[in-house]
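Hi everyone, sorry if this is the wrong subforum. Our group has a chain we'd like a structural model of before ordering constructs, and none of us has done structure prediction before. Sequence below.
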Amino acid sequence: MSKDLTERFEKYADLIIKVGLNLQKGQRLMIRAPIEAVELTRALTAKAYDVGCPYVDVTFGDEELELIRFEHAPKDSFEEFPKWRVKGSIERAEQGAAFLSIAGNNPDLLKDQDPEVVALTRKVASEQSKPFSREYISNMRVSWCVISAAVAPWAARVFSNEPEHRQVDLLWDAIFQMCRLGEPDPTAAWRDHIDALERRRAYLNDKAYTALKYTAPGTDLMLGLPKGHIWKGGIDQNADGTTFVPNIPTEEVFTLPDCNRVDGMVSSTKPLNYGGTLIDNFSLTFQGGKVVGVEAETGREVLKKLTETDEGAARLGEVALVPHSSPISTVGKLFYNTLFDENASNHVALGQAYSVCLEGGEAMAPDDFARAGGNNSVTHIDFMIGSDEMDIDGILEDGSTEVVMRDGEWAFEA
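Answer:
Right subforum, don't worry. Here is the predicted structure as tokens:
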């Protein structure tokens, strides 16, 4: 590994440990990483110990093993799941550990596999992981952060027109750029950025819009917002009151829609990679909050199957606002990675809503959460709908309308 990359890993690790996780002295850290990210993982581990972490527990994964499973495992075995991993995560969460997930995936890994089996494995994993993912991650009870690492198959997809020997380096360059690591003081730059997101979030919370109206080519959507909804963005707090940044990079402010008050049509502006299938140029039609129509140039059956995962998979659980001029958007690349692509565009998500986005939501039973407008599902799938042609208006309680976005950009000062 080059000296330059080693130094950049040091900066990256410093940002993640001190800003992303805001790891506290005496706090344990759980890391999940692809085996290709071993050097970055070592830098992160060293940085964690330097700030007083007593123990870093690393789990490496090899996604090729998942492909081997699809190609060789018995077809009646795909409902099996290692429940002990969930139990271990819950045990660490109860001890106050922080959780870091490093994403670095081949977007085409399962493209030739049976979509029904892919959907089944995703559903089983979501269902079995829910005691941890919902109670500790979605409810922000623990500090957690998702970041990315450049791996060869992913780099080859993003930079397919570049020589093979340059692809991984180019992807690292893009990751570092989008994470603001080129700034003289990346930590200070991130704190300024988080402050800006906080101002946007506070403005929207003060407005307490009852709905958002989306207008763009192929999109004419009225999206209701439940009473007591809370806009989040940039930074959050765990159960102990420690702040952390769940995603690096992040450019969004987000909340939950009223899952029963979404009507009209919304069209995608970027492809959705789901389980190795690329779903492109698609649109969804909603009535009374539920998907009643699915169209797609490619991947329609997979998308339709996704909306049938459970009752909540056909309803929205998140609405997020991102200016078209975000640093990720200006790179001008499709990354086939939700962490990056969702931060380049306004987006929504099918499936589970974040209970922390509703006043008192963390304490609500699922049925009470649903009655308040929150969506329950085993899945949560983001897809991108924003562009430089999108206008968004906020509907106030008295029925009057205010401008929120024009031509994909913020239309108010904050």
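For your construct planning: The mean pLDDT is 93. Residues 195-232+248-410 form one domain.
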